[in-house]
Design goal:
- With 614 residues, the protein is α+β, with helices and mostly antiparallel strands.
- 25% of the residues lie in helices and 28% in strands.
- Strands 3, 7, 8, 9, 10, 11, 12, 23 and 26 form a 9-stranded mixed beta sheet that branches. Strands 16-14-15-17-22 form a 5-stranded mixed beta sheet, with helices on both faces. Strands 30-29-31-32-33 form a 5-stranded mixed beta sheet, with helices on both faces.
- Strand 5 and strand 6 (103-106) form a beta hairpin.
- The chain is elongated and about 100 Å long.
- 45% of the residues are buried.
Length: 614
C-alpha cells in the first residue's frame, strides 16, 4: 500500500479528554475517531490492527474445535424474559420497541441468543458438546464511559459458549478455552495474569479472569508471590485472623448479658475507639444494605417475609429487599462478594430513611439484636464448621444497640444473634495472608481482557433446554461461557507497547509490518524504494510505502506515531545502502539496498515466530 492511496489522519496533539496512553495514541495515530461519548469509529489503520486481533482469536479457537456463528445484535425481549434478565440486567441494557410494539434488546451479551439458537436443534446427547463462538458488536449503556475504547458503550466482543452433557464435559471445554486464551494473549504480545473472579451478572460457579497489569486498571488484583495465588479483589479470600482483645490476646467468651451503654455523639468506629478505649477488633460493625433481585428464599427468616416475592419461571426473586450485614469493625464489606452470596444483581448501602426504617436507629447505632431484616454475618464474626454448626469468632463484643445514642457491650455472637446467612463478605487487602500458604498478599491494578465462566444450568434450565440422554431420558445440559474484549485488548497492547514518540506495535498486530520512507520519492530513491516494496510484497510482507511529498521529519514522525515495527529509509546520501531501523531500536543500521528486502522479511518472520512459539 502506498500512502498516496491510503487515508492517514494523524494529530499533533490528543484532545484534552484523552488521559491514558492508548486513548491519546489511538486518536493521534488516526486509529479511531469519536462520534459521541463512548462511541468510536475505527479508521483504516485502526481497523487493520483490530482485524489482526480478531484473526488470532479465530485461529486459536478454531484449533480447539469451536465454530464461528453470528447472532443478531438486536434480540427479542422474549428470550431475556425467559432467562429472567429482562428485569435484573439493569439500566446498562438498552431496550427498544418495534413498530409492532415488540420488546427488543440491544445485546449487551449473548447467553440468551446462543441458548435460544441451540435449543431449536438440540435433541440428542450425540450432538453434545456444542461449541460455538462469535466476534460481534455489543452495547452496554455505561454510566461513565471513559478511556476511549477501553470502556466504551459500543464494543466488539468475542463471546463463545459450550453446551455440555455433564460437568466433566464442561471441565474439558473450560480447560480447552483456558489454554487457548494463554496462546491468544501470548501471540498478541501481552503478559496475562489469570485470577479467580466473581461471575457477576453472568451467574454460574467457576470463573477466571485474564488480566493485564495496568496503572489505570479498573480492577485490584490480590497476588501471592510465594504460591502464585491470584484473584480479583471482588473474589479474593484470605486466611482467617484471630480476633484479639485490647490486650492483644484472643478474645474470651463472656457469660455476662449484653447491656446498654449511653454513647452520645459516638457515630463512627473512630468515635467508638476513643469512647471505649478499645481496639476496633472488639467491635461488630452493622450496615443496612438495599439489595436488588435477591434469588434466595427469604421466607425462612421471620424478617424476610416482609419483602415481596416475584414468582418467575426463570427463578423466583425479590425485586427489592434489605439486609443487615455484620463484620468485624476493622474490616470492610466486599459488595461484589455480598451480591454473589445473596444471588443478587446489585447491592448498595441503604439511605438514612431506609436505615431508620429497618434498623430502628440511625447509621452509627445499628445493631444485630434489634435489626428488622435478615442478618448476613461475615466469617470474621461467625463461621460455619464442616458439620454445619456455627462457631463464634468474636467474643464479648461491642456493637450498636438499635436505638439512637446507645451501643451494647458483652455481645456474644450465636447467643445473642444468629445469621440468616453466614458468608465470607470481607474485602481482602494488601498485607492480608494467603489462604493457601500464609504469605502476605500484595496488590496491583489490572484490566480484564478475557473471562471464562462455568454457567452450569442457569440458562438451560430457565429457558427450558433439554436433550435425550443415552437412556432416552429428557435431560438439561450444562453450559460454559467464554469472552474476550477485542477493543480493550487492542488498547491494552498500545498501553503496554509505546514510548514518547508513539505506538510500538507487536509484529502480530501492527497495521503494517514494514514502512519504506524515501527522503524524496524521485530518481534513484524512488527506484530503490519501489524495488524493495515489490520484493517484500511478493514475499507476503505487509508494507506501507510513504510516497508523500512531505518533509522527511513529517514522514518519520507519522511512521513512529503509527508504530510500524520496521522502517526502511531510502536516502540519496546513503545509497547504495539504506537505513534499517526497528521501531524499538535507538539507532538505525546501514544495509545494502539489494539485501534490504531479504533482511526485512527475516526480521518480520523471526518476530512472528517468537510470538507464536509455544
Amino acid at each position: 500500500m502506498k500512502t498516496s492511496q491510503y487515508y492517514i489522519s494523524t494529530l499533533r496533539e490528543a484532545p484534552s479528554e484523552a488521559v491514558i496512553a492508548s486513548h491519546k495514541l489511538m486518536l493521534r495515530a488516526g486509529l479511531v475517531r469519536k462520534l459521541a461519548n463512548g462511541l468510536y469509529a475505527y479508521l483504516p489503520t485502526g481497523l487493520r490492527s483490530l482485524n489482526k486481533v480478531e484473526k488470532i482469536i479465530r485461529e486459536e479457537l478454531d484449533k480447539i474445535g469451536a465454530m464461528e456463528i453470528k447472532i443478531p445484535v438486536i434480540q427479542p425481549g422474549e428470550i431475556w424474559k425467559e432467562s429472567g434478565r429482562w428485569e435484573t440486567m439493569g439500566p446498562q441494557m438498552l431496550k427498544a420497541k418495534t413498530r409492532g410494539e415488540q420488546d427488543m434488546v440491544v445485546s449487551p451479551t449473548a447467553e440468551e441468543g446462543y441458548t435460544a439458537l441451540v435449543r431449536e436443534a438440540l435433541s440428542s446427547y450425540k450432538q453434545l458438546p456444542v461449541n460455538l463462538y462469535q466476534i460481534n458488536t455489543k452495547y452496554r449503556d455505561e454510566i461513565r464511559p471513559r478511556y476511549g475504547v477501553m470502556r466504551g458503550r459500543e464494543f466488539t466482543m468475542m463471546d463463545a459458549y459450550t453446551m455440555n452433557a455433564s460437568d466433566e464435559s464442561l471441565d474439558e471445554s473450560y480447560n480447552a478455552y483456558e489454554k487457548a486464551y494463554f496462546r491468544i494473549f501470548k501471540r498478541l504480545g501481552l503478559k496475562i495474569i489469570p485470577v479467580k473472579a466473581d461471575s457477576g451478572a453472568m451467574g454460574g460457579s467457576g470463573s477466571e479472569e485474564f488480566m493485564v497489569e495496568s496503572p489505570i486498571g479498573d480492577d485490584t488484583l490480590i497476588l501471592c508471590d510465594k504460591c502464585g495465588y491470584a484473584a480479583n479483589a471482588e473474589k479474593a479470600a484470605c486466611a482467617p485472623d484471630v480476633a484479639t482483645g485490647n490486650d492483644g490476646k484472643p478474645q474470651v467468651k463472656t457469660d455476662l448479658p449484653f447491656e446498654d451503654v449511653a454513647t452520645p455523639n459516638v457515630f463512627s468506629i473512630t468515635d467508638m475507639e476513643k469512647f471505649f478505649n478499645a481496639s476496633p477488633k472488639t467491635f461488630i460493625k452493622a450496615l443496612i444494605y438495599k439489595v436488588e433481585n435477591c434469588a434466595l428464599d427469604l421466607s425462612k427468616d421471620a424478617n424476610g417475609k416482609q419483602f415481596k416475592l416475584v414468582k418467575d419461571p426463570a427463578g423466583n426473586y425479590y425485586p427489592v429487599s434489605y439486609f443487615c450485614v455484620l463484620i468485624r469493625a476493622d474490616l470492610d464489606v466486599n459488595e461484589a462478594k455480598l451480591a454473589s452470596a445473596l444471588k443478587a444483581s446489585a447491592v448498595e448501602l441503604a439511605n438514612d430513611e431506609e436505615v431508620l426504617q429497618y434498623a430502628g436507629a440511625p447509621h452509627g447505632f445499628v445493631g444485630p439484636v434489634t435489626a428488622k431484616v435478615p442478618l448476613v454475618v461475615d466469617c470474621s464474626v461467625i463461621t460455619t464448621a464442616d458439620d454445619g454448626s456455627l462457631v463464634a469468632q468474636m467474643h464479648d463484643a461491642i456493637t450498636g444497640a438499635g436505638k439512637e445514642g446507645y451501643h451494647i457491650k458483652h455481645v456474644e455472637p450465636i447467643r445473642d444473634f444468629k445469621p440468616f446467612l453466614n458468608a465470607d463478605v470481607r474485602l481482602v487487602k494488601e498485607g492480608d495472608l494467603c489462604p493457601n500458604c500464609g504469605n502476605p498478599f500484595h496488590t496491583t491494578k489490572g484490566n480484564e481482557l478475557g473471562h471464562i465462566f462455568k454457567l452450569g444450568q442457569k440458562y438451560t434450565k430457565s429457558m427450558n433446554v433439554t436433550y435425550l440422554d443415552i437412556n432416552g431420558k429428557a435431560t438439561i445440559p450444562t453450559m460454559g461461557c467464554y469472552g474476550i474484549g477485542v477493543d480493550r485488548t487492542l488498547a491494552s497492547i498500545i498501553e503496554n507497547h509505546n514510548d514518547d514518540k508513539g505506538i510500538i506495535w507487536t509484529m502480530s498486530t501492527a497495521p503494517f509490518q514494514v514502512c519504506i520512507v524515501p527522503i524524496k520519492y524521485e530518481g534513484q530513491m524512488k527506484e530503490t524504494a519501489d524495488k524493495i516494496y515489490d520484493e517484500l510484497t511478493r514475499a507476503g510482507i505487509e508494507v506501507l510505502l510513504d510516497d508523500r511529498n512531505e518533509r522527511p521529519g513529517v514522514k518519520f514522525a507519522d511512521m513512529e506515531l503509527i508504530g510500524i515495527p520496521l522502517r526502511i529509509t531510502v536516502g540519496e546520501k546513503t545509497l547504495p545502502n539504506i537505513e534499517f531501523k526497528p521501531r524499538a531500536a535507538t539507532e538505525a543500521e546501514l544495509v545494502p539496498a539489494d539485501k534490504a528486502a531479504a533482511k526485512a522479511e527475516q526480521f518480520v518472520r523471526d518476530a512472528l515466530a517468537e510470538l507464536n512459539a509455544e
